């Protein structure tokens, strides 16, 4: 324990860790449910990739892997499946003939947007009694944690 930490600091950090575990479990459940809503054969990691593509716009598989800190082989397998399911199309990158640009299909965009709307409505409901200051502080703290 560092000199500026007390047992209560350690307990608080342990509680933060526990609550993050609960939150991450809920996020994994949302990805699983979202994947199933998009297509019964889509895996949660595919949903995460597809949702990122919809939010961020077209990009290469390498850029998507970097953005999500995911192995390129995972991206490749999921993209192949999503192409087969009609959720993603790929085209040669005009700037790099070796790379391909991935784009969510219009059907995928509609499905992801509908799921995102539902998720945001649920989050809005859970946070409806929070003040603007609470929400701003929470967002700031989350951003600091992600640094």
From TrEMBL:
| Keywords, in A-Z order | DNA-binding, Transcription, Transcription regulation
Q: Name one GO biological process term.
A: response to stress
User: Which parts of the chain are coiled coil?
Assistant: none
**Top-level taxon in the UniProt lineage:** Bacteria
Q: Does the keyword Transcription regulation apply?
A: yes
The Swiss-Prot or TrEMBL record annotates one GO molecular function as: DNA binding
> Which CDD domains does the UniProt record give?
HTH_ARSR
Q: Does the keyword Transmembrane helix apply?
A: no
InterPro entries given in the database record? ArsR-like_HTH, HTH_MarR-typ, MarR/SlyA-like, Tscrpt_reg_MarR-type_CS, WH-like_DNA-bd_sf, WH_DNA-bd_sf
Show the Pfam families listed in the entry: MarR_2
| Limits of the HTH marR-type domain | 17-147
- The protein in question is named DNA-binding MarR family transcriptional regulator
